[in-house]
Amino acid sequence: MTTARRQGDGRKRRAGLAAFLVMSLGAAVMVYPYAYMVGASLKTRREFAADRHSLVPPRFQIDQRLKHARGEPSALDWPGADWPVLKNYTDAIVYGQVDVFLFNSLLYAVVITAVQLAINTLAAYAFARMSFRGRGVLFSLLLATMMLPPAVLLVPQFLVVSGLGLVDSFMGVVLPGFAGAFGVFLLRQFFLNIPRSLEEAGRLDGCSSLGVLWHIVLPLSRPVLVTLGLFTFMGAWNSFVWPLVVLSDQAYYPLTVGLSLFREESGADWPRIFAGAVMGSMPLILLFLLAQRYLVRGISLSGLKGQ
To answer: From CA 291, how far away is CA 118, in angstroms rounded?
Structure first.
């Protein structure tokens, strides 16, 4: 019995070690591009051209500093070796208008997230709790739109926005993002898991359908609302193709499109592009850190329970 238990414990330890190694490898693969982006944002253009693959700028590398201390040629002798650490970031703001692009991205993402949460919540509650003719057919058609590639909808969306006279405007960017089939589906599945007895108790207290939704359903749905809001915000923040198609005025560009302007006659200014990308990623990282405790719970509670 003791031998069998030891063998079982040994297998568990080996399995745990293997899982740890696999997860560590996966984490390294995920983190490396971001670490590379941060390191490249601290380089001068010459340093980036001379050493594209290092994570640390050449003038900060230990071997280069040892060479410099011994009087040997090193990266610290290159022109611009006294380049301030955050100069690419300040230049991206002063000359590249990254602050304007960041504000535009934030405005687009906040408006799209707020409106989509409101519309998707009302639609999902109607599909989950209200009975009306054709509800199943409409919900099936809604889910079918999730199977369409975004590129297929690009031209129809542009024609609609153009017909409304919203090309090259704030509303032209945000209007197609005001509702989404995935959000309706996710919220509907969550609402189906809420006991009807709670809603019936609210109706006995005199609540209307909107009152039940506001006072009972939404407080219980905070995890899934935060999860959907996070996904929607990330999608709007990272949107590139649609703003590129519908906008021509640089004053309305989000950060994803604005970074494409960081070009000179000699080519792209990659260190400043990476500096802008780092600044653009910080709001998403902060938002994820604030909302992560709701994220897993919101997804796990949104089961596939049917009606």
So the answer is: 19
The HSE-up count of residue 61 (CA atoms within 13 Å, CB side) is: 15
* Confidence at 60, pLDDT banded by 50, 70, 90: confident
Q: Looking at this protein, which amino acid is placed at residue 14?
A: R
List pLDDT tens digits, range 157-191.
999 999 999 999 999 999 999 988 999 999 998 89
Tokens for 60, please give them: 């900060």
Backbone angles phi, psi at 43, to 5 degrees: -90, 155
Query: From CA 61, how far away is CA 45, in angstroms rounded?
Result: 17
Q: What is the structure's pLDDT at 85?
A: 78
Continuous H helices in the chain: 2-41, 45-50, 62-69, 87-94, 98-129, 135-144, 150-163, 170-174, 181-192, 196-204, 209-212, 218-220, 222-237, 241-246, 255-258, 270-301
Distance CA 228, CA 176 (A): 17
CATH code for the domain defined by 102-301: 1.10.3720.10
CA proximity to 277, closest of 292, 291, 252, 260 = 260
Per DSSP, what are the bridge partners of residue 263? 268
Give the residue from 298, 294, 299, 303 showing the smallest Cα distance to 193. Answer: 303
Tokens read off for 143: 């889910």
Q: Which of 187, 207, 195, 204 is nearest to 125 (CA)?
A: 187
How buried is 245 (Cβ within 10 angstroms: 0-12 exposed, 13-18 middle, 19+ buried)?
middle
Residue whose token pair is 């949460």:
117
Summarised one tens digit per residue, pLDDT across range 97-135 is 899 999 999 999 999 999 999 999 999 999 998 888 888
Q: Where are the domains of the chain?
A: 2-87, 102-301
In contact, 33 and 14? CB cutoff 8 Å: no
What is the rounded CA–CA span in Å between residue 81 and residue 79?
Answer: 6
Nearest to 271 by CA among 77, 101, 80: 80
Give the pLDDT band of residue 2 (cuts 50, 70, 90).
Answer: low
Query: Global pTM?
Result: 0.85
